[in-house]
Write a structure and sequence with these properties.
Layout (H helix, E strand, L loop, with lengths): L1 H28 L23 E8 L5 H8 L9 E8 L3 H8 L4 E3 L8 H10 L7 E4 L5 E2 L3 H9 L5 E8 L5 H23 L11 E4 H7 L8 H11 L4 E11 L5 H22 L3 H7 L2 H10 L4 H18 L1 H21 L7 H4 L2 H14 L18
Helix pairs in contact: 1-6, 1-13, 9-11, 9-15, 12-13
Length: 391
């Protein structure tokens, strides 16, 4: 029996260790300043001219936030003749649509039996006759600064065809919202900033994204799952298009404030992560053969165990093995120390407060909800799971 326990112990450790090593590596890399990306041109080659932007807000039952977000986005200091806003109103109230019609925007009103963000974007592109240089996608609750478009245009003029802006929290109502905001900043450090630092494409995040308009127009019809941003990544990496992370262009996003919304959001993300992994695996041999490091890395990323689960389970097994056999526990304590230190490094300094350490028990509760999601996952589902907003 003890032999079986020992073998199981090692198998569990070997299952979790690669995810910890991946996170630790990029946490270390995030300590270094970003270097110029493979596409960064010589300063004398940079063009300084306004680009034409289409800004799209896919809005599914977003009556509580959409009007305020659009009004705020219209306050750009960028020349008004060089940008236009479109809102895809999906199952929103007529009163909300009337308020939106009073603004200088285009209102799309599709009627979907089964809604999704991908369908909303496809509908908007199909019903847009004008041509633009770039497309920006914002969520209905996103807020941007007046200089947002000027900053994005400066990045576009350097030759980038795909850009991910710095999405960050605009609220910290309670422990759930705070932890959600911290989680997003850790993702920014690991999967965006650190990746760009060593010349690998940033991960996309679903909003605060900018794409070359013609590229997006030609590819939007391919997106069909509830995690369209990951499908975008797959297409970009297959075509060797670098994704630039603009750390200094903030897009403020409302963080979930309830355990129910957190669980629903993480269920969507966890399901999408596994679906993306299954989508990426068939092309992986080709990526390895052609040396497509961006695609290889992204495939590895989809196979990672969520950090919070790594943190809690490594602590749990370290304590358990300490009780069973002290010598068996050493490797678990090392793993727990590495993942703890990596997460700490990846958290921006401004967010490393004493209050953060008091949220460990809230983290355990949320991890319990995430583990419960494993029983609810439907890998064949393409349903859109909506995160609600309070008025």
């Amino acid at each position: 029996m003890w032999t079986a326990i020992h073998i199981t112990d090692w198998l569990l450790w070997l299952f979790m260790a690669p995810s910890v090593i991946y996170v630790a590596f990029y946490a270390f890399v995030s300590l270094f300043p970003s270097r110029p990306s493979p596409l960064s041109p010589h300063p004398s080659d940079i063009k300084h001219q306004p680009s034409n932007f289409l800004i799209l807000f896919p809005a599914y039952k977003e009556d509580a936030v959409i009007v305020h977000s659009v009004r705020q986005c219209l306050e750009q200091i960028y020349p008004k003749e060089y940008y236009h806003i479109g809102v895809i109103s999906d199952h929103m109230q007529e009163e909300t649509n009337e308020l939106l019609r009073q603004l200088p925007i285009t209102l799309f009103t599709p009627q979907f039996e089964k809604s999704s963000k991908a369908k909303a974007l496809q509908y908007a592109i199909e019903h847009t006759e004008e041509s633009y240089d770039y497309l920006i996608i914002l969520d209905a609750d996103n807020m941007v600064l007046p200089e947002f478009l000027e900053q994005v245009n400066a990045s576009c003029q350097q030759g980038y065809r795909a850009i991910q802006c710095h999405r960050c929290a605009k609220n910290s109502d309670n422990d759930v919202a705070v932890l959600d905001g911290i989680s997003e900043e850790i993702n920014n450090s690991l999967f965006r900033k650190a990746h760009n630092t060593i010349g690998i494409s940033s991960a996309l995040i679903g909003s605060g994204m900018c794409f070359e308009y013609e590229w997006f127009k030609n590819h939007v019809g391919l997106f069909e799952t509830a995690v369209e941003d990951r499908e975008m990544e797959i297409q970009l990496m297959k075509e060797h298009i670098f994704i630039k992370y603009e750390e200094h262009i903030p897009v403020y996003d409302e963080k979930v404030s309830s355990s129910e919304n957190f669980q629903r959001q993480r269920l969507r993300w966890m399901t999408g992560q596994i679906q993306s992994l299954l989508l990426m695996l068939p092309y992986l041999p080709t990526a390895i053969k052609t040396g497509n490091i961006h695609y290889i890395d992204k495939t590895m990323q989809q196979a990672l165990i969520p950090r919070s689960i790594l943190l809690v389970l490594s602590c749990f097994f370290a304590i358990l093995m300490t009780v069973i056999n002290l010598s068996w526990s050493i490797k678990w304590w090392v793993l727990f120390l590495i993942i703890s230190l990596s997460i700490f490094i990846a958290i921006p300094k401004r967010m490393r407060t004493k209050a953060l350490f008091g949220k460990f028990f809230s983290t355990i509760k949320l991890v319990g909800l995430m583990l419960g999601n494993l029983l609810k996952m439907d890998l064949k589902s393409k349903d859109f799971l909506h995160t609600t907003h309070d008025k």
